[in-house]
Specification:
With 392 residues, the protein is α/β, with parallel strands linked by helices. Strands 1, 2, 3, 4, 5, 6, 7, 8 and 9 form a nine-stranded mixed sheet that branches. The N and C termini lie far apart (129 Å). The N terminus is likely disordered.
């Protein structure tokens, strides 16, 4: 018996659940910067070692990478000034991650020229929900309340001892001018062979006076910039450093540039060379780096006065050992990228040497037995150079 045709049953319509609004996306460039700052501020990470890999992983375009770089380096440099702006509006110390977030927002408002609505909104969006009102309130007050800076150390964001030391040695005007310049991003200068090197370092290498047929030792040579510059002038250069990893940097640069440089691991305080083996010796000694702080955003917060004392002792040992390696009539050049006398002109002249007082090429200013470069006058790193000639 045939069944009558019946229309097929339609499935019941699925109940549509109301959609929640999509969360507002966090600006990815600021998020990368914030992640870097938390590691630098609270876990002891070095800014330059954190930033590069973070940018590589980020997938950000060139413009956003530049923005992240400015935010990270700028916020780290201006940490003390940012804290002074923030602390007017908090009654208790914020938890560490929120402190870093407030610094990031404050840097954008006070120093980076970012529009208030963008700086505040994007920073607040990265805060935990329970603290967004707090972060918003603080940053709004920062954006609208002028500040009277208590002193130059806070305004320029340096440790007190550093400002006091440079003021005592340079005078107030030059100290403030130099500290101000070192809060700016450094210029990028490139040699004819394509090697990127600050002009202060290029002028230091040139001051060694290395020429064709001469054998030159670069005692603390990594990453090899000065060694390859001297080799380009025709000298054969032996480039030494105490750490194998750093010698690897020299080797890589030498291979890339095709320089006449031999690199090796050697302790500069106990060099494995015969006395008088070199026509010229360059000792670009480890130092506090107070002349190159614009290149090392976090260095100002790591260096202490005790470090200066210990470095000065190491420098003296290196200077004595290096002097033994210079042939009679040869020259020893001592350089440091600092501006402190204790690390430079206060070192005694090595026995059997005399100071060379003729000015080297470049905008060097006479200072004690040597010469120096002040960043605000030359647009370069700060540097001190002392040259000695072996007389016996």
């Amino acid at each position: 018996m045939n069944q009558p045709d019946t229309p097929p049953r339609r499935p019941a319509p699925r109940r549509q659940m109301p959609r929640k609004p999509a969360p507002r996306p966090v600006d990815s460039a600021r998020q990368v910067a914030y992640d870097c700052l938390r590691r630098i501020d609270h876990h002891g990470a070095y800014a330059n070692l954190v930033l590069g890999p973070s940018l590589e992983r980020s997938g950000l375009d060139v413009r956003d990478r530049r923005f992240v770089t400015e935010l990270v380096y700028g916020t780290v440099r201006m940490r003390r000034a940012c804290d002074a702006l923030i602390d007017r509006f908090v009654s208790a110390a914020p938890e560490p991650d929120i402190r870093s977030l407030l610094r990031l927002g404050t840097y954008q408002l006070a120093f980076a020229g970012v529009a208030t609505h963008a700086a505040v909104a994007e920073t607040v969006s990265m805060a935990p929900k329970r603290l967004r009102g707090f972060v918003n309130a603080v940053l709004r007050r920062v954006a609208t309340t002028p500040i009277e800076w208590p002193n130059d150390a806070v305004r320029l964001s340096y440790p007190d001892w550093m400002v006091a030391r440079l003021t005592a040695e340079l005078g107030a005007h030059d100290a403030v001018a130099t500290l101000t310049v070192m809060n700016e991003a450094p210029d990028v200068t490139e040699r004819a062979d394509g090697y990127v090197q600050d002009l202060a370092s290029q002028w230091t290498a040139a001051a060694v006076g290395a020429g064709p047929g001469e054998v030159v030792l670069d005692v603390c040579a990594a990453p090899g910039g000065k060694a390859t510059a001297m080799a380009a002038d025709g000298a054969f250069v032996v480039a030494a450093d105490s750490a194998a990893a750093r010698v690897g940097l020299i080797t890589a640069n030498v291979a890339r540039l095709g320089s006449a440089v031999a690199s090796l691991v050697a302790d500069g305080t106990r060099p494995p060379f015969a006395p008088g083996a070199f026509d010229r010796v360059l000792l670009d000694a480890p130092c506090s780096g107070l002349g190159s702080l614009r290149r090392r955003a976090d260095a100002r917060w790591r260096i202490t006065e005790q470090d200066v004392v210990e470095l000065a002792e190491l420098q003296r040992r290196l200077l004595v050992a290096s002097a033994e390696l210079v042939r009679p009539g040869g020259t020893l050049v001592y350089s440091v990228c600092t501006l402190l006398a204790a690390e430079s002109i206060d070192h005694p002249v090595p026995v059997g040497f005399e100071a060379v007082t003729t000015a080297p090429d470049g905008p060097w200013q006479p200072w004690g037995s040597g010469f120096r470069l002040l960043p605000h006058l030359t647009g370069t790193d700060g540097m001190v150079l002392v040259r000695y000639r072996r007389t016996r």
